[in-house]
């Protein structure tokens, strides 16, 4: 499965901790992330991450394009709702795109853990047949 990972600057450490904790599950899948987040995940986990541009340089647009092609199976997007800085990846754009294309999305640690555990149990295998039906 293709897992998309994005974190605003104030949530990058949380994303690193999440990826360390679930490295065993994540290593079985293809990871995609915006540039800085992807580099930080690689540094702390040694997982291979396909990196888009930094969010401020258009990585969020590359991310939504992959969702619109139905090439993303899960999105984990940690953001701080009280502190969204100019230039950060656009939460509403990405979440709306996930909703439009029926891509499971987590925007906090609790839902991210639920999604990762569901992925590990095989509860999200329907995504593979969904992706194949659009080919």
**Poorly predicted ranges:** none
Top-tier CATH class: Alpha Beta
Return the structural class: alpha/beta
Strand order of the largest sheet: 3-2-1-4-5
Total strands: the figure is 5
Strand proportion: 5-15%
What is the CATH superfamily label?
Answer: Methylglyoxal synthase-like domain
Q: Your description of this structure?
A:
- With 135 residues, the chain is an alpha/beta fold.
- It has one domain (2-130): Methylglyoxal synthase-like domain (Rossmann fold, 3-Layer(aba) Sandwich).
- Helix content is 49%, strand content 15%.
- It has 7 helices and 5 strands, in the order E-H-H-E-H-E-H-E-H-E-H-H.
- The protein has helices at 12-21, 23-26, 35-45, 59-68, 91-100, 109-121, 126-133, and strands at residues 2-7, 30-33, 49-51, 74-78, 105-106.
- The chain has a 5-stranded parallel sheet, with helices on both faces.
- Helix 5 links the parallel strand 4 and strand 5 (105-106).
- The chain is globular.
- The model has no long low-confidence stretch (mean pLDDT 89).
């Amino acid at each position: 499965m293709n897992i998309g990972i994005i974190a605003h600057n104030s949530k990058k450490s949380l994303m690193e901790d999440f990826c360390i904790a679930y490295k065993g599950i994540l290593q079985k899948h293809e990871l995609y992330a915006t540039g800085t987040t992807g580099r930080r995940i690689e540094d702390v986990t040694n997982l291979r991450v396909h990196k888009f541009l930094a969010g401020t340089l258009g990585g969020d647009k590359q991310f939504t394009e992959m969702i619109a092609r139905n090439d993303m199976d899960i999105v984990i997007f940690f953001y701080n709702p009280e502190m969204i800085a100019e230039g950060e990846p656009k939460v509403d754009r990405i979440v709306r795109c996930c909703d439009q294309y029926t891509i499971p999305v987590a925007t906090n640690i609790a839902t991210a853990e639920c999604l990762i555990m569901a992925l590990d149990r095989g509860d999200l295998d329907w995504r593979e047949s969904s992706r194949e039906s659009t080919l």
